[in-house]
Structures are given as C-alpha cells and as structure tokens.
Amino acid sequence: xxxxxxxxxxxxxxxxxxxxxxxxxxxxxxxxxxxxxxxxxxxxxxxxxxxxxxxxxxxxxxxxxxxxxxxxxxxxxxxxxxxxxxxxxxxxxxxxxxxxxxxxxxxxxxxxxxxxxxxxxxxxxxxxxxxxxxxxxxxxxxxxxxxxxxxxxxxxxxxxxxxxxxxxxxxxxxxxxxxxxxxxxxxxxxxxxxxxxxxxxxxxxxxxxxxxxxxxxxxxxxxxxxxxxxxxxxxxxxxxxxxxxxxxxxxxxxxxxxxxxxxxxxxxxxxxxxxxxxxxxxxxxxxxxxxxxxxxxxxxxxxxxxxxxxxxxxxxxxxxxxxxxxxxxxxxxxxxxxxxxxxxxxxxxxxxxxxxxxxxxxxxxxxxxxxxxxxxxxxxxxxxxxxxxxxxxxxxxxxxxxxxxxxxxxxx
Length: 412
Ligand code: NAP
Ligand code: MG
Description:
Blueprint: E1 11-15, H1 18-32, E2 40-44, H2 47-52, H3 56-68, E3 70-73, H4 81-86, H5 96-104, E4 107-112, E5 129-133, E6 143-147, E7 151-157, E8 170-177, E9 181-185, H6 190-207, E10 211-215, H7 223-246, E11 250-254, H8 255-264, E12 269-273, H9 275-289, E13 295-300, E14 306-310, H10 316-323, H11 333-350, H12 353-371, E15 374-375, H13 377-380, E16 389-390, H14 393-410
Bound molecules: NADP nicotinamide-adenine-dinucleotide phosphate and magnesium ion (MG).
C-alpha cells in the first residue's frame, strides 16, 4: 500500500445514531482510511452516550470545534417521549444541534449537491441555491396570548434593574380590540442579527457566491428595518472591500421580490433568510432540487469555525430494516460530502493541499457514480435518464471506492 495522506491537525468527529451511524463507519472504512492517516478527536453523541454523560459530551464536542476549528457531525436522534421508551432513557435532552449552535453562535447554510441526472423542478436553475437561515428569535421565541374579549393590548419595555438611567420605560398600543382575538410578541437581538450577517458574508466569500438578503421593511419598518440596517452596517464597515476584491455583490431586496427573482434565476446565489423565511424556503429549495439525501449543511460561526453535516436525520425506518438484516438502499452522499467539506476546510486552514485534492477526488468519484447510472433507490425514483442499477448502500459505496481508487492510481 502506498503512503496515506498525513494531517497536521485533527478534525472533531461527532458520531451519531441509527442508520447514519452505520453508514458513518462504512464511509470511514471504505473511502477515507485507505487514503488518509485520519486524525480526529472523537465524540460519541449516540443517544445512550449523551444519556450516560448527562449530555456533557455534546457540550465538549462543541467546545472542541471551537478549539480545533473544524468538525464533522453524523445525524443524531433528538430525544422525545417515544425515544424515551424505546431507549429506556431517564432524561430528555435538547436537540444536540441546538446545543452546539448555541455554543458556536452559528448560522446554518444548506446547499443541494447537483448531479446531471437529477434535474431541479425549476428548469431555469443551473446552479445550486444556498439558503443561510438565521436561527435565533422571531416567531420561534414568541409570546402568544388568546385575547378573551374587548380591550387594549400594549407592548411594554421595562429597563433591567441597575440599567443606565437614560433607559426609560416605553409603552405603545398594539391594538384597541373590539372583540376576542389573538396577539403575539416577538423579538430579536442586535448582536444575533450581526453574527448572522457576518456568517453570511464569511460563507459568501468562501464559496464565491453573490449574497442576497431580503425582509419586509416596507411594512415592518422598525423590526425588519433593523435587520436591513444591521446587514448594511456589517457590509459597509467590515466586508465591502473584501467583497469588492473577491468580485462578490451584496444585494438587499424585499422578500416577495426575492422569491420572484429566485424562481427565475439561474441559481448560484447565497440567499440569507430571516428565521421563518429560511425554515419555509429551505424545504422548498431542498425538494425542488431533488432529494433530502443530496443536501449538505454547514454551521458557520462568526468566530470562523465550521461544522459540516448531512441535512437529513438518522433515517430511522431504514435502521429498523437494517436491524432485521436488510441491506437498505440508504443514500450516503450527504454524509460523504460532510466529510469532504470538513477535510477540505482542514486542508485550507492547515495549508495541506494534498488533503484538499483528495476531498475533491472523492466528491468527483461520488458524483460520477450517480451520473453513470449507479445510484440508491431515492435517486432512482427521480433520475432522468433512468438508473442503470439500483444499489444498496454497501454496493453503492463499493462502486464509489473502486472509482476513487482508479482515479488515484491513474494520477500516480
Ligand atoms: P430523516 O431521518 O431525514 O428521514 C426522513 C425520510 O427521508 C426517510 O424516512 C427517508 O424516506 C428519507 N431520507 C432521509 N435521508 C435519506 C437518505 N440518506 N437516503 C434515503 N432516504 C432518506 O428524518 P426523520 O425520520 O424525521 O427523523 C429521524 C430522526 O432523525 C429523528 O430522531 C430526528 O430527531 C433525527 N434528526 C436529526 C437531524 C440531525 O441530526 N441533523 C436532522 C433531522 C432529524 P423513506 O423512508 O421514504 O425512504
Ligand atoms: Mg422547515
């Protein structure tokens, strides 16, 4: 065997649950370990280990990403009452992704992986559309009230105890209601919006994509207006020169105009969305682009650390079938791309180009395999021209491995 590629610094490896955990080990064994002297700091976020450590392992994994700069994460179960019975858990812990995101203060970017046999539903889209979703506040942290009958609803701000004397109570009327109804209070924080804007500019520069941001500041002059102002400040003061040097444009427009423009665009943009817009639009982009199993996800922190993962979950139903002995046709592409994303970022930070070249070759081998007609069942359902062979995950990874080996040997 020829020498494996050396790594300077480790990647934080975060293992997970169910079918993705099975595929995780397989991807490492067949596609990475034969070629890389893989250095990782391993954290087992499988549900039982989160339980055993009182979820401390999740916090430690996030801190490790802060320290080492790059992480790669397998999908994990978010525990709920059904899982509590299934796994005989004593506690329910919050979503690991939520915990990690809170520690890294990150923004999540989702990008579809394009292959020629899978056409986007929108025929004008030639390049992927990436969504950057603000993941704090708005309707996700709202206070709602059923108003029982006629009366006045007000917004009241009370300064914190010990706050500067210049801060005074403020009070405005939301509505003089003439009957029963509903009311909702939402908020956001300047600092969170600023982090979101920074993460978007960092990502746009890294991926060389024009950045669009949209809100509804004509109607929501104060609330959405604040988002527009902060984005603009971050651009003007911190990124204008860097964007100009990289040939990257920043464009603000109204959300309805953005939706209309995205549909008739060629793609190849980063679309920064407020929390709710991002929730809705990322599902639209994912499904219009083909399959959930072809969507990558990266958490970018404003401090410049990165965590890569697949956008899908643990593929629970496939796991139950695998446990019964079936070789399922679960698509490992997004998991493979989580690894290649992390390896390429590690290579960039460590200045180890050989590792970046390997990541690139692995991605090319995976894409080519699908383009030549060998694919998993989820893709075969929508492929045009049709699949030549529908493979299970083990066969599919073996075909990718053979193609990768051939590419590497040819280049020796
Ligand atoms: P899911 O695991 O994404 O699966 C939903 C369905 O999408 C699957 O049943 C499957 O459809 C299809 N699918 C997803 N990934 C696929 C792949 N790689 N290959 C082929 N088909 C794929 O979502 P879920 O069932 O809602 O959630 C399962 C568990 O994952 C939950 O415990 C949830 O908490 C967790 N989760 C974790 C993350 C994360 O860690 N980032 C994200 C989401 C959910 P068919 O059954 O029709 O084949
Ligand atoms: Mg959604």
